[in-house]
Amino acid sequence: MISIQNLSVEFSAKSLFDGINYVINKRDRIALVGKNGAGKSTMLKIIAGVQKPTSGSVAVPQDVTIGYLPQHMTLTDTNTVIDEVRKAFGHIQQLHEQYDRLSAELAERTDYESDAYARLIDRMTTLSEQISMEEGDGGEAEMEKTLIGLGFVRSDFNRPTSEFSGGWRMRIELAKILLQRPDVLLLDEPTNHLDIESIQWLENFLVTKAGAVVLVSHDRAFIDNVTNRTIEISLGKIYDYAVNYSKYVVLHQERIEQQRRAYENQQKQIQDTEEFIERFRYKATKAVQVQSRMKQLAKIERIEVDEVDTSRLNLRFPPAPRSGDYPVIADGVGKAYGDHQVFDGATFTIKRGEKVAFVGKNGEGKSTLVKCIMGEIPFTGHLKLGHNVKIGYFAQNQAQLLDGEITVFDTIDRVAVGDIRTKIRDILGAFMFGGEASDKKVKVLSGGEKTRLAMIRLLLEPVNLLILDEPTNHLDMSTKDILKQAIKDFDGTVIVVSHDREFLDGLVEKVYEFGGGKMRECLGGIYEFLEKKKLDSLAELERNKPSTPDKPAQDTRNTTAPQKPATQQDAPAQRQGRVNYTEQRERQRMVKRAEKKVAEAEASIADIEARIAEVEARIAAGEVDADIFERHAALGKQLDNAMSLWELAGIELDELKQSLGID
């Protein structure tokens, strides 16, 4: 459908792409991956026609439409939300003209059995359906469905777009692009401003309704669920894999290992050749051989390995000063701005060492509650911080607090203490500040670079309560993995505000959901929370079922008596049975998962108790080494944490069984 041919791009005599070739097919859903700065966003701009390549071409058929959502855009509209989105249908006349042109072409053709003729018929059918939908009432329904899917509520539809933040206005632009139903969607970090529910809705839309998709995203779960092809950009070349991201990671690692072995073999060959030349350079009897080796050396095409090995980088927070048992206790906390009540009645307790997530739609109060905990804004109710709580806070505006006159390296060097100072270069490299970038002054960094630098700075400060507000927005996947492991190893308390499911998975053991002006607690990880929401909707379905058997549908055209919705009246018994069976299986799976969690917690406790008994036996026998008491204390702490997890798992199991009516 779209052909990229011999594409090359240079910036200041530096090559970004070098002779790239590939084709975007009709149902391809492609993830563009690579390091920050590899050229992913530039590639999207070139395909969209926003930027011209240095050489080569992008061949787009005349009847193929492209929708492009850049990562950043300047928005100046002054309409209401619904009027702005209605602009998506402003191209109906163009659709009519395109349909008429294809119709005239069809009338002249006689190759009825050819693939080209079939494609023409298919294109005309699609255009006809699109025109029919956009000219009828279906267009309004699609607009409403799309806006609600992206997180808006009906009361937002007639509000001026100027009242919304940049993130929400990006959602409006995304809605317009999706409603246009282009043949090819180009999306640059579309999830940056979306909450988990909106991301899931967008995933479903792209999989079920979109044509070809090319996207750039650092949300691993999102691209894994959407894409079926991965194109890696590395050192000006591309590596094309006909698999989704998870499978690509395995194949990529195999390629890197092969590349590294080839690089090492080549380096040995170069070294041997150089040693031979140096040894016999001035011997007349070896002159011919020396000249031959020199020519051979000049012809070698040097292998490059575009991979910084961060697998051994064990980034750890400094030991957390001990806080009280309950770092955060809230009782009936609420916050309103004028007549708008953001949330109310938030009552919860976070224990020392817990790692929890704040999730929910944007604007429901996650960051607002964080500001309440930080003491930055007034609130109603009671909120108490525990004894000796030292907060480390990361938010987008943290970047503005950095000293612009010092270098990247000095920014980190001034807060690093102990052995970590010997690893500053490695840490900077892992967060994409390797080489000369570490000597840049902070004031010349981009917003994303400053955000990453603020994150590194926070990692090195001795705190015991970490509050991270969307920490992964400007991090690539390998850097997110390093940060996630560091947080998992952190022995303090953590609150994470995030919509990145993959980042939260295995990191948090409790989820607080914000929505409808309330805050609800869910014990378990992020995927347990998402599954529980599905279960709740099934339970809601069960509660809404009629208590008496369904009656046959009746003709209601000549009566105004209230009737049940037709979908309930007409549902056959077999369908009800399937719903009941599906619900029952889902409930059984939830209970088994909860029981497994309890069993795993009990096994962990038994293991730690056995290790404590072994250490205590050694102490009693006088077999004392330098760090045996530290090990004993660490095991004691692990046992406390394991007991807490066991208690939480038991409570979750009991609550689940109670909600399902299981003894």
UniProtKB/TrEMBL annotation:
This is Probable ATP-binding protein YbiT. SMART domains: AAA. The keyword Coiled coil applies. Belongs to the ABC transporter superfamily. ABCF family. YbiT subfamily. It holds the Pfam family ABC_tran_Xtn. Residues 542-586 are annotated as: Disordered. The lineage of its organism: Bacteria, Pseudomonadati, Bacteroidota, Bacteroidia, Bacteroidales. Residues 555-582 have a biased composition (Polar residues). Residues 2-260, 328-541 form the ABC transporter domain. CDD domains: ABCF_EF-3 (cd03221). It comes from Muribaculum intestinale. The keyword Cell wall biogenesis/degradation does not apply. Residues 249-276 form a coiled coil. Keywords: ATP-binding, Coiled coil, Nucleotide-binding, Repeat, Transferase. GO terms for molecular function: ATP binding; ATP hydrolysis activity; transferase activity.
